[in-house]
Amino acid sequence: MDDDELARIREKKLQELRDRFDPAKKPAPAAGHAVVIPIDERQFAQVVQQHPALVIDFWAEWCGPCRRVAPVVEELAQEFAGKVTFAKCDTDHNQRLAMQFGISAIPCLLFFSHGQMVDRVIGALPKESIRAKVVRNFRM
Question: Where are the beta strands (DSSP E) in the chain?
Fold first, then answer.
């Protein structure tokens, strides 16, 4: 295999990852289903203020553990629909936010209650561990 072929394979794989995590390329959810909100620096403060119970997943497309947590976040968004809002923030495109919250490892879930950060989870924890944090932080 030559360098050009490896570069093409690498680019193809990166594009597949981008497509997989691009919210614009996902089908619209069925009625009554929760959506994980993409969030960035522009609307961050507004989203935090609008949602009294909010969990933000800080991630990056190149991060393997982030890819393991993504479906867990989506499942929990469905489970807690109407009670807890879930959002995703790409750290590669929102480095100031990551620095503001001292995020040095991803995935990192931040829990906000009524606009204040109340907890964080670092790493790809199992679904039950993340669910327990949601229940404990938002008194469900």
Answer: 37-38, 53-59, 85-90, 108-113, 116-122
